Fold this sequence. Notes:
With 107 residues, this protein is α+β, with helices and mostly antiparallel strands. The protein has helices at 3-7, 13-24, 43-56, 72-81, 90-106; strands at residues 32-38, 63-69.
Amino acid sequence: MTAKGLSAGLSNPEKVVNALRIITSDPQVRVILFNIFGGITRTDDVANGIVTAIRQHPLRVPLVIRLTGTNEDSAVRILAGAGLSAMTDMDEAVRAAVAQVGAETAA
């Protein structure tokens, strides 16, 4: 993608699909923390990418989503429609991700 595309706020859900495919191919990954601070990036595009990705490649690890920014309300609705939720506080999201790994380790 060109610098012009990035500065124009161009988002592409397929990038999210590819990123999650790569991350989940690593057997060492125990939790995924998706942190989106959408200023230029539209959070609804990212949410669509997350939903598409987990439909194409069901996750075997917990997913914690933190997002805030452009089109945040739409993104939250998109995620909720797929049975997912998002947090807006980064500290809370990190604690949730760490707790997921702790729960897995305890099991």
